[in-house]
Structure formats: structure tokens, C-alpha cells
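Task card 7
Instruction: Convert sequence to C-alpha cells.
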Amino acid sequence: MSETQVSATPESAAARQRAVRVSAGLAELDVWLGDQVRTGLAQAERSGRVFATIAARMVDAQAPGVAAVLRRLPELVAGREEWPDLLLREYARLHLLIAAHRRLDELTPELRASVRTHVGYPTRAAEVREQPALRDAWQVLGVRLSEEERLHTRRTWLYGRRTGRWALLVEHHFGTPEFPKDVPGLGMMAEAEVHFYPGAAPLRALWGERFGADEPFTTLPLAVSGVGGKFLETPDSHEPVPASVGESREPALSTDRPGVGNSYEPTQHATVGGPDKATQPTTIAGPDEPTQPATIGGSGEPELRVADGDSDEPALSSDRQGFAGVIDSALAGHARALAADPWLRAWPVLLTDIVPVLGAQGWQVAEIGGTALPLSPGESPWQLLGISGGHPVTVIGEWTTGGLVPISVFTAGTVVDLEPQRMEAAAAPATGGHLTSVALLGTARRAVDLSALNPAVGAVATRLSAEPARLLLESVALHEAFARAGVRAERAELPVPAADDPRRQLPVAAALRLAAMLRERSVFLPEWFEAAAPHDFRAPEAWCALLLEQASAHAGLRPLLLRLAGERGRWLAAQHPEWRKLEWPSSTEEDTDGWESGKPAERLAWLTRLRHREPDAAREALTLAWPRESGALKAELLAVLSQDLSTKDEPLLETALDDRRADVRRTASGLLALLPDSAFTQRMTARARDWVGIELGAPAFVIDLPNPLDAEARRDGIFDRPVEFTYRWNGAPDPTAGRLRQLVAATPLPHWQALAGGDPAAVVRVGVEERFRQPLFDGWVDAALAQHDSAWARALFEAGVPSDVALLRRRELFALLPEADRVRHLLRLDGAWFSEIEALLPAMGHPWPEPLAQHLILLLFERSRVAAQRAGAHGSGPAAHRALLQAAAAHLPVGAAATAAVVARRCEDPAWERAFDRLARDLTHRSMMLEELQ
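Output:
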């Protein structure tokens, strides 16, 4: 029954009224389209306001699908050099849709449903469930989430394991991405029925009855791997028939054999033109020689068929099927879908044994033999390239007007979701300079010359007798159908695969957590890397791109991230214009190339590893290279000797005292001061004995430094230094005070105990002239920290903060105390000393001792009680202790999570309750993080 013959019920009356409104609106749009190309695209206004106005008219006409296309046009053409082609293509598609809608009653039910869907007629779920159900083992091969104006959409691609049939579930939710839980996750399989939305190329579907529980899958059906939209059925039943699974690597594409073919074999084609243009179908043998006919035309309409140019058969003959590759089969499946529904913008494909390639032609995916497909412009699938590493994988994606859009990849029995990239507008097919030129000038100024078109397109266009504007739009529609359905595969040169990495792979759960923490710049990252270091994991290939991206942005984590990325990461970085600049450590510690000809960072890393393994060999290598070294790297190389420093290093360090670079001399003098029996420390001790004495009556240091200093003193590092060694006395700079600090810092600490005749605590109590009090104390602080003397650190810490340097470095002195002393000191501090506690906690290492953890939780709980009793009191809320709470989350032992959760339930202040709950969650997160690394 046609849409104009529905019964006189309220529902049919509403449908009839809507059809009238839609028809009127589309007729108005068709006139507008004709005006655009008649006056010329160059002269027509292309502002967002114009498209918004006509889109609003389509909304009023109840054609939301058409309105959505019009609203996208400003973004599609903005800033694009090829905007005339893009705009002309969209106008032609709309004109074709309007022509089909005009003859809606003459179309088959399937094609009519497709036209209605593209226009925007709603389809009720009840109507969909009335469609015949298709039962299969549906594998979830792709999931994509998107959001537009707070409307969240989830698209789930299903693949029938037995039928090779695609199904697409589309769900919407406004406000938040909360979707039903009945859809299996990526990589899961469900035995179920689905109901397809009616259409000429059915793809979107709804779940039907489910059978059994969901289960993971680790294999894909090989025999139908290349076909898009394939559905096999018997002539008398809707039950699916397996497509010779296991018998052939290539799917059967011929549609003239019983039991083999496409379930949506188009019985009628979308029409171009009006109802009075009757001609015979015309075959077009395009340059691509597609293997399956794609048609645009209809009853009484000029028809475009894209067929094999070497055969009169409309489909791929059986003797050629064995030679069709996966890419050819995918293109044929797309051509069949496009023949049934020429308004399709994308069609799913499953490409097995495919290698992603980045070459001179841009991004491609290629078969082993070199047959390739381009990726859509704007796609930069570095994650996919990292997963492949030059090895074949299975790619799930959508074939679009612009090229392939990867969605996921199947490798090693697992489906990996590919993070979507920001896509640019797809490049328009080569509409042709002539048609574009006519559209720019306008058909009122220039007519379409059909002889200037592709001969195949022109042969059909000559049968069109429309007025010039419509002739142009219909010629463009014909050309687009010809170009899209007859696309030819490209060629690509496959890359050399990445080398194997024999290390144990990082567990997937740990990799997922690391990826989330890297994106958030989590404070737990140092703990994660410290816990992972003994295992020396390699990252799963899917995360190599993320690791390189993070390594490029964050120098502090770079060595750890590059080590984790391993050989696959090194291979991937070589393909990227920015990542290839990353400085990788030498792959083998014994390889001297990293030392002799490597970059500065590589040479420093090589020497550091050698020093750790063979201290004498590292010193000999540096000694031999020393005369040739220059620049800032020289001081960094010398500093490597601080590891396993011994008297054997003294000759090289003494040589470095004569270097022209001040940073090299400072490094050398600092290292020599750590050798108590070196000639340097003996010289410094002798100077301290001569320049600093003591009065025995009322103990006081007597300081008398020579001025000027002799050359030997300056060689040993005593000279006027800026900033940190600058002191003032009587309003003027005091260089003598700075020299005193340098002397004291380089003198062994036992000298001062021998001079004063007491322990460190007694020495720091000895009097000194006020002018030299600060530099003397600062020199002791420098010496205590450099010489790691805990007794002196305790004496200086307990002496207070007589100088700015002591205040800034008090935490470092505290860190030198034995842990028991540090814990004892902090346990004596109550809630009035939160500032002191926060200042000293970083010196407590990781994790904090259990007694300290309990003490801090108790102090914070007491503060919550104050907040509950005096609401709004300054400094009582958790915001005032944000830094301490963040430090607690990072450093409390993970076992304290239970205590934090209990305390949260006892808090009477809501803000503190939330703070303790957050602390408990963070501690639980760390606990799981550490467990995942085992």
C-alpha cells in the first residue's frame, strides 16, 4: 500500500500531513540548490547564517536528516582549498535524495526505507523488531563514543561469525554517556538475534533475543574476512548459511550462483531526474574495473552501472574470485552497498593481514603484495602503526568518501580499540575541473559540456534532458557514484618490521592504569616506575605511541618511558618527525659507538652505565677522552665519577681543577672534598688551620682570611662567586664572608671538632663575630650535606635557623637523621605544628612509617572535629590542608586505606568526610597499582 493510500486513522493522517510538509520543504530546497549553481558558487553566500536558515526550514518541514547535512556544510568547507568540489558534491547528493523522495511511492520498500531514513523520518523500535531476526554469534569489533551539544552517542560494530554480516548498534543519551549494559564489550561475543532497520543496504540494527552468556573470542572467521555487508541465506528461509567457512581464503562474490550473494541484492536503484526520462540501462566500465555493479538509476531513468571492464558479466566471475585480495573484496562489498544506497557515507570493512604504512603517499594500509588503501585525510593512526610494527594485523574500519577510517585492530587474539583522531573534512572525489568551473561561474553563464566529462559518465549524462542547473547536479551525482563505487586500490612499499623485544610484556591491567596516570600527570607515577623497575617490562605495542608522546613532552620521565617503549617504540619513533629527535640510550652497554659518536645524552648515559658496572673502565674512558671534551657536557661527564668515588679518581679531578670552564672546576673541587685523604682536602685543612683559630677563654672563632687570595687558593675553588655566596656587611658586599663559606664547605668536618675540642653540638655553640656567623654556619651545612654526616646534621638541625640557607636546607639536614629519630621528632608535633610537619614530611621517604601514618590521620581527624564544631572557622577545612592530603595520598602506606575509610564514616563535617573518602580511594588505587605489577 502506498503512502498516499493509507487508511483514515489519526496515525495515518499525521503521517500524510508529515509527508506533505516534507515534500514541500524538499521542493523548496531543490529550488534553492538550483539557484545556487545557476547563479554560481563563487557569487553565492556561504556564511553559517545562510546554511542555518535553510537548515531551520528543513527542521520546520520535519526533515531533520537533511537539516543535519546542511548544518555541517559551513564546517566542511571552511578553510578548504577544494571547497567548491566539497560543496558541489553535497548539493548533488541532496538533489539526488530529493529526486528519490519525489518518486517515493514507486520505489521498493527497501529503497523507500533508505530514502526516508536519510531524509529524517523516524523509525519506531517496534517497527524494527517486526523485521525478520537474524541469529548469529555476534562479535563486537568496534566501539566509538561521540558527543555533540551534550548528546552522547555510542556506535557498536558487530560482525556475524557465521554469516559475515555487519550490524551497527547506535545508542543516544543526553547529558551523560550512560548507556545500557546489555551491549557486550569490545572483544566479546554474544549468541543473539538482531533486527535490522529496514533499508536497501541494512546495517543499523537492534538487539533481539539473547542466548547464553557473553564470552570472549580470540579468532575471526577467515573465509568471509574481506566482505563488507555480506549476508547469505537460503531461497526459502531466513536462516543464515555459512559461506564455506574454512574452504577458501577469499569470499564468494558472484551473485548469480544459488546460495551465494548479498541479502540486500538491490531490486531497484535510486533515481536521478524526473519521471519522464525513460532510457535503457547503460554499462560503464570504469578505470578501476570494480568487481560488483554499482548502479544509480531506476524505472524510466538513466542508469549508471559500474561493472568489470573486461567482462560482460555484472559481477566478479567465479574464475577470478581466487585472485581477489582482501582489499579488492572490501571495495567490492562497499560498491554493492553503494549500489543499493547511493547516499551511504561509510561502510564497515574487515581487512586481514594488513600492514599500516606511512610513506611518500601518506598513510595507507597494504596487503603483503603491496595492494593498498589510503586512510582518510586527518587520520594519523600512530597507535595502529605501533601495534603493527611493520607486521600484518587485522584492521576494522569504515571505508568513506575520503578513505579508510580505522576503528580497531585485531592482533594476537585481542581486539584493541584505536583512539579516534580529530578528522579533517574528507577530500572530495575528483569531480572534474569542468563541472566545478561551471558550478563556480553558474549555469546561467556557462553550460555543461558533456563531452568534457569522463566518457563513461558522459555517456549516461547525455540521456538527461533536465534544465541546465539540474543537469549539472545530476552529472555530479553520476560522477560521484562512478568515482566512489569504482575506486581503485593503490600500491605501497611495506616497511622493514620492528625488531623483537624479548622482555616480559607489561600486564594489560597495569598498562591501562599507566596510560590513565600519564594523561592525568598523576602524582603516583614515581611510585609506579619504581615498582616496575625490577621487572624491566616492555610496554604492549598499543601503548607505544602514547609513551613516545609523553616522552616528547616530559623530559623528566623520558628515560623511563623510552625504556618501557623498547624496540617497538624505537621503530615507531623513527617514523615520526618529532619523536625521531628523542635521544635513545645505546641498545647494548658494550657498544662503544654510543660513547665515541653518540649524542650528548647518549654519551652521558653510556658512561653512567659503565661507571655502575665497571668504575675503573669508566674512569679510563673519560681520562682518554678528557683532552677532547668541551662544552657543558664536560662537567656532567665529570660528575659521573661521584658514583663509587675513590682515590683512583683523584688525578683526573686534580687535572680538572685547571680547566677553563668554571662549572668543571666547581664539580672537581666538590668531588675532591669528598675524598678525606686527598691532597685537596689536606690543602683545605691547612688553610682552615691558618685562617680560622679559636680563643680558649670564652670559646670563639677568630677568622682572618688573606686578601687577596693566592693563585693556589683560587685554583682550589675559593674565589668570589655570585648569588648564593654573596653576603653583605655594613651595607656593602662582603666577599670575605663568601670565601669563608667556601673554605668551611670544602674542609673535612672532623677538623672543626678537633679545633674546638668537642662534638658537633658543642662546635656549633662556639661564638663567632656577627659578621661571619651566617657564612660559617652555611659552610657547615654545605659540608654536612656533602659528606653525609648525620651527627653534624642533627647538631645543625637542632641549632635552629640562624641563616636563610639553613632555613631552606633544613629539610635536607632532617633527611640525614636516622629514621627512628625523624619519626620521633614528628610524633612530638601536634596540630599546632602543621606547617613544620608539611615542611619535613618530604624527608620521610616512601612510604611513610606506619606510626607516622596513624599519627597524621589522627591529627587530620582532630582538625575535622574542629571544623564540625566551628563551621567556617579559618584553616579548619580540608582546603587549608590540601597539600598535606595530597602528600598523604601519595606516601601513606597502602594499608592505611581501611583506617581512612573508617575515619571518613566518623567525620561529622561533610567536607572532611569527602576528603577522607578520597584519601581512601587514592590509597586503594595505589594498592591495586602495585598488585598489577606483580
